[in-house]
Amino acid sequence: MQVRILFFGMLKELTGRGSDLLTLPEHATLSDVFTHYEASTPRLGELSASIAISINQEFAGPDSNLKEGDEIAFLPPVSGGMADCESDMPAQPRRYSSIVREKINTDEVLAQLKQPEDGAAVVFEGVVRDHTLGRRTLYLDYEAYEEMALKQMDALAEQALQRFGIRDVAMVHRLGRLEIGETSVLIVVASAHRSAAFEACRWLIDSLKRTVPIWKKEYFEDGAVWADGEPFPDGIPRAEGSHSERPASK
């Protein structure tokens, strides 16, 4: 059988490819896929405790069985990696999220979300700053596993609605090159009460930064690096499950 493999962020540069087609025997598992690429890129094994893998845009463990045509993605920690975040979506989900490549229009999103019954509308903008750890930042470049990112963002929105009792939420993330001062991510929460809106907004951005497959590369005067991501929460399986006989370093 043949499956499609995707690599993102630092793993794309580490393996020297963004995608691949791999032929496997029947009854192959994710562990077999990882072992195949580890043979040509041993560094993957050293990073296995930090790498998550998905099948058809859903997180999966190394023992998961594969079938013809599956899409498998190797995911480094996301730029900021679901212990309490379920990825299952309703059969007919409403879309709360969007991914764009143009400038984010905060005023437009806010105006579309607010309703007369709202007593609060909390807005969070993630903005590109001009430095990181003392190094002058020139610009950022964001990439994403877009289909999976949208599913995860919508799942977070559904959870926030139930968990905090807010009325509505909108999330927008921008990809591509962003200059200093530009908005990379926007979250707007509308609610009858301000406390719920504040709590939901904070939870949403923190969860997004840990679980949604979006990565950023920072460009400095003296080079460029993929931003260190937060470790994936314990509820997300890692590639290290196929390397149980030796500890994996982060």
At a glance:
The protein is α+β, with helices and mostly antiparallel strands and 250 residues long. It has helices at residues 10-15, 30-40, 43-46, 106-113, 146-164, 194-211, and strands spanning 2-7, 19-23, 52-55, 58-60, 71-75, 97-100, 120-127, 131-132, 135-144, 168-174, 176-179, 183-191, 214-220, 223-226. The protein is built from 6 helices and 14 strands.
Task: Chart the SSEs and their pairings.
Layout: E1 2-7, H1 10-15, E2 19-23, H2 30-40, H3 43-46, E3 52-55, E4 58-60, E5 71-75, E6 97-100, H4 106-113, E7 120-127, E8 131-132, E9 135-144, H5 146-164, E10 168-174, E11 176-179, E12 183-191, H6 194-211, E13 214-220, E14 223-226
Parallel strand pairs: 1-5, 6-10
Antiparallel strand pairs: 1-2, 3-4, 3-5, 7-12, 8-9, 9-11, 9-13, 10-12, 13-14
Q: What this model shows, in words?
A:
This protein is α+β, with helices and mostly antiparallel strands and 250 residues long. It has 6 helices and 14 strands. The strands form 3 sheets. It has a 5-stranded mixed beta sheet. Helix 5 (146-164) packs antiparallel against helix 6 (194-211). The longest helix is centred in the middle third of the chain and has 19 residues, at 146-164.
